[in-house]
Design goal:
The chain is mainly alpha-helical.
Length: 132
């Protein structure tokens, strides 16, 4: 049991299990934005524009005048999130994050929150390996 704990502590120190959660404010903002963008793209007739004030007027304007571009924006944003998520797994491997469960966490977080997660992974600097 003590050997397993020591091995786990060593894995934390060597960076193979590094994971950092995105900031909550970015998680909330991106989730809200993607939900609204999806709603405007996929079900624009169900949006209660009159109850949303100036934001509803803006959404209605987008639906009436630029719906094609809103749709492109929605699908391109998901495409970017997917590409970032897969590249994030490759980046994990190149930065020494080898634990498959941790790589999966990075993949899911980047898929859902995009650059708010991917930027953390890009900026992660693994500690230098000790030479004996």
């Amino acid at each position: 049991m003590a050997a397993a704990a020591a091995a786990g502590a060593e894995r934390l120190r060597d960076g193979s299990c590094h994971f950092q959660r995105s900031r909550l404010i970015w998680m909330i903002a991106i989730t809200f934005g993607m939900i609204v963008l999806g709603w405007v793209t996929l079900w624009p007739s169900t949006i209660p524009y009159s109850y949303l004030g100036i934001f509803g007027s803006f959404l209605n304007y987008l639906v009436e005048n630029h719906h094609k571009w809103v749709c492109y924006g929605f699908w391109v944003s998901w495409l970017i999130h997917v590409v970032e998520a897969f590249y994030g797994v490759k980046l994990c491997q190149s930065k020494g994050i080898t634990d498959p469960a941790v790589q999966f966490h990075w993949f899911i977080q980047t898929l859902l929150f995009g650059y708010a997660s991917f930027g953390l992974l890009v900026s992660y600097k693994p500690s230098a390996k000790k030479q004996y």
